[in-house]
Amino acid sequence: MPPFLQLMLDSLWPLLRAGIVFTIPLAILSFAIGITLGFLTAVVRLFAPGPIAAVARFYVWFIRGTPLLVQLFVIFYGLPSVGILIDAFPAALIGFSLSVGAYTSEIIRAALSSIPKGQWEAAYAIGMTRGQAMRRTIVPQAVRVAVPPLSNSFISLVKDTSLAAAITVPELFQQAQRIVAVTYEPLILYIEAALLYLVFSSVLSAVQARLERRFASYGGFLENRA
User: How far is CA 142 from CA 13, 36, 97, 191, 209, in A?
Assistant: First the structure.
């Protein structure tokens, strides 16, 4: 077996284990927290009084306008200077969650705004409150609109977790860096890491396609009933 293939084979499990133990959990947790934060931010921007909505707008403006890597450095390396010490994984989780929240809030806000006003009026006409109308009528329709861009955001997040290596989270990319420091074979190891990210992204893209077909069928069912 050629030496480079042997090296890739020997390093496959350490890289894959780092991806399974750190990269995927970090992405899933960050997305779950971030999408919750994004939904709340979108609702606040659409329905809250002016001053509260302004706070939400500032949060989105600030997070979207500054690099994610800088945000991670501020949380992990900067906050200790004012007495706030956060371990690497929680720091990455906070940084990625804030980033996901800002970006998905715009997706969710656009999806909610895309629902015709008549849907709200119909819900009110049958005695629903605003909360009931949102939960039973608006959100189910908005989900179908939001699934494709939210899925793309999650796939991007999985790749962006490589930035966590910069704050010492032992995820897939940092594991590749550690092996490179021993083997002095950066080209082979970084290509292998890239291929693993490609595998993860391809699996997620297949799941996304399936979700889109399912929600498209659900939308057609609703239209036929109407």
Answer: 41, 15, 22, 39, 18
- Distance, in Å, from the CA atom of 95 to the CA atom of 63, rounded to the nearest integer, reads 10
Report the candidate in 157, 148, 168 with the shortest Cα–Cα distance to residue 97: 157
Contact 75, 85 (CB under 8 A): no
- The model scores a pTM over 0.70: yes
Residues in contact with 119: Cβ distance below 8 Å, sequence separation at least 6, in sequence order: 133, 137, 138, 141
What totals of helices (H) and strands (E) does the chain contain, helices first? 10, 0
Span 162-179, pLDDT tens digits = 999 999 999 999 999 999
Biggest CA pair distance of the chain: 73
Which token pair is 190? 């970084």
User: 3-225 maps to which CATH number?
Assistant: 1.10.3720.10
Distance in angstroms (rounded) separating the CA atoms of residues 201 and 224: 34
Q: Please, what's the b/e burial string for 116-138 (b: 16 or more CB within 10 A of its CB; e: otherwise)?
A: eeeebeebeeeebeeeebbeebb
CA dihedral 206, 208, 213, 217 (to 10 degrees): 150
CA distances from 184 to 42, 95, 157, 177, 189 (A): 47, 31, 29, 10, 9
CA distances from 226 to 32, 92, 216, 222 (A): 33, 46, 15, 6
